[in-house]
Amino acid sequence: MLQVRSARKTFESRGIVGLGRGESIQAVRDVSFDLAEGETMALVGESGCGKTTLARMVVGLETPTSGSITFEGRDLSTLRPAQVRQVRRRIQMVFQDPYASLNPYHTVERIVSEPWRAFPDAVAKADRPARIREILRLVGLDDRFAERFPHQLSGGQRQRVGIARALAVEPRLIVCDEPVASLDVSVQAQIVNLLRDLQDRLGVAYLFITHDLRLVSHIADRVGVMYLGKLVESGATEDIYDRATHPYTQALLGNVPLTHPWREDRPQFVLGGEVPSPADPPSGCGFRTRCWRADQRCADEEPALVDRLGHPSACHYASFDLEHGATTTLPKERT
Amino acid sequence: MPAVDGVSMTVNRGERVAVLGESGSGKSATALALMGLLPGSADVSGSILLDGEELVGRGEAGMRSVRGERLALVFQDPLSALNPVYTVGRQISEMFSRRRGLPEREARRRAVELMERVRIPHAAARIDDYPHQFSGGMRQRVVIAMALALSPSLLIADEPTTALDVTVQAQILALLRQLSDEEDMALILISHDLGVVASVAQRVYVMYGGQIVEHGATQPVYDRNAHPYTAGLMASLPDQYSRRERLVAVPGSPPDPRALPAGCRFHPRCGWAESLCETTPPELLPVDDGHRRSRCHFSDRVLQAGSPR
Ligand SMILES: Nc1ncnc2c1ncn2[C@@H]1O[C@H](COP(=O)(O)OP(=O)(O)O)[C@@H](O)[C@H]1O
Ligand SMILES: Nc1ncnc2c1ncn2[C@@H]1O[C@H](COP(=O)(O)OP(=O)(O)O)[C@@H](O)[C@H]1O
Ligand code: SF4
Ligand code: SF4
Ligand SMILES: [Mg+2]
Ligand SMILES: [Mg+2]
């Protein structure tokens, strides 16, 4: 249904208030993946790795610098504006911050009906009041909520409204950008369960973006791991959790704080260093400044995202083995 | 309505304790109370003991003498603790020159030492950099270095890693563990994250609606929950081992601190609630072997039922 091919996005920045030279920030670098009807693909990675930029390209809020995005067989960059609108209707987005993404002066009813302004044919005028209540019930809000304003809602209820708004035009794909990151754990679970129920009932596909690997196993069929603008490993959820071969994926998994560390025999994993600037990525492999397997080849030759040990991994030395990666003490900073 | 009520805590030298709870549960208010920084209008009842010494009700003058020297605080947002127009070196060395009266050169030498101790790479070269030239993780290290300057016996860290990425979070948590061991410094870690708490703290205070609802050594509290809220948090936490399993959500949301429910503050969300819970607030009472406490009318039943994880 969705094909992303070598998508790239470079932002030209002018530097801080005119000071310093301008730089190009390579937010997304040659990302390719497919998403099938009714499927959930999770994109995981730390802040700044390009997740939101990729999401914004998929929903058309950002144009790729190069590469293509094809939805239901049509390349979005070659369509005429009128056609684009029809395609757009079928791809909706749920944002991270339910506080910022809802207009504080509009009622829930008005917020949910907002997409119908752009797509008046979606639902006949006469049917709209009933349809809104139907959608609200679908996301677990009863009729009373239609008249309320965002400030009268809890964080979880606001995110339900954000999801209701996305559903109003019956999309086939919903891009969820960190939909539960700002919610309390006990409320996160409600929203994750809601998204799953909606998928079961409506068959909608999700591109689910998160920095929290713990969430992914509860919702995703497939996972793509991003680092410094690139996909570094992808596969079925089980491939990523049980058979990760890229050192960054292994580090991410090992860095999730364990709820019951005393039940585990592996030591807590600490990865040294920090993500390099996307304005000046390292030569060769982007992860080499933090990688315990790195050698000269990693600086000279960029590893391609190709099948290695059963699923795609962008590491010259793809391996199930953690080697020296697992450590309880702070590793020496690499320079 | 008091911001936090009935909060009694003890912390011993070199010990690592955590305060765990969702937003609005009163964790930060507790930290501020510990530091004597709550505004006059706010009300803290209870008792907070550090090495057997009472901290609540000391008043501003009494607190000023302990702050920094005996107690230091690290917040979630390192930028709010740093002055953007001064170099980090100046901000750290001022702790030595102002508070300890060390000459400038000596204070600067000690600042580099501290930056090395919190593992800031190339400390000597970075001492004249400004806060904005550091990454989020490195800034939090700078703030920790400032907190450590006067060798406090207790460090309070309020969500110190919440704004950081998971790999940087792991670095900072490892640093806090190491520092508390090396310096024999007590640590109160405040967090909403069950995993973060488990990786750091030997004991945990679980807070809900401005009260401590469960308390004990971390492992038994996690392995055998005595309070329905702790059990609910455990059940709702996603974990990387369950494959496409449904999460068990706690219904509703945390209470508005301005409109707390009568009776047990958790009753509108509690699967164990009976009519007694709607009217009668439960007390924090010893359970199990007596080393743990739980604020629930039916703690024994909850313990008997077994924990979700
Ligand atoms: N409009 C923009 N202009 C300049 N740089 C941007 C813009 N949007 C994002 N970036 C940069 O691109 C990189 C990727 O950002 P983003 O896609 O938001 O990452 P993520 O969502 O994974 O945190 C970051 O370095 C960010 O600062
Ligand atoms: N949403 C809110 N509305 C009003 N007051 C709040 C809110 N959240 C927190 N407070 C104030 O802070 C107190 C406790 O919250 P806080 O200590 O900040 O919780 P935490 O740090 O656990 O999120 C409350 O009693 C109240 O005074
Ligand atoms: S290619 Fe080299 S640097 Fe990159 S992840 Fe693999 S071993 Fe590490
Ligand atoms: S006292 Fe009642 S409502 Fe409160 S936690 Fe216990 S069972 Fe639930
Ligand atoms: Mg983002
Ligand atoms: Mg707080």
In short:
The complex is a heterodimer of chains A (335) and B (309). With 335 residues, chain A is an alpha/beta fold.
List keywords for this structure.
heterodimer, A: 335 residues, alpha/beta, 6-stranded mixed beta sheet, 4-stranded antiparallel beta sheet, 11 helices, 21% strand, globular, disordered C terminus, B: 309 residues, Rossmann fold, 2 domains, 8-stranded mixed beta sheet, 3-stranded mixed beta sheet, 11 strands, 18% strand, elongated, binds adenosine-5'-diphosphate, binds iron/sulfur cluster, binds magnesium ion
Explain what you see.
- The complex is a heterodimer of chains A (335) and B (309).
- Chain A has 335 residues and is an alpha/beta fold.
- Chain A is built from eleven helices and twelve strands.
- In chain A, a hairpin with a 2-residue loop joins β11 and β12.
- Helix content of chain B is 38%, strand content 18%.
- Chain B contains 13 helices and eleven strands.
- Chain B has helices at residues 27-34, 59-66, 78-81, 88-100, 104-117, 123-126, 136-148, 166-183, 194-200, 218-223, 228-236, 275-279, 299-305; strands at residues 4-11, 16-20, 44-50, 53-54, 71-74, 154-158, 186-191, 203-208, 211-217, 285-287, 292-294.
- Chain B has an eight-stranded mixed beta sheet with strand order 5-6-7-2-8-9-11-10, sandwiched between helices. Chain B has a three-stranded mixed beta sheet with strand order 1-3-4, covered by helices on one side.
- The longest helix of chain B has 18 residues, at 166-183.
- The two termini of chain B are 35 Å apart.
- The model of chain B has no long low-confidence stretch (mean pLDDT 86).
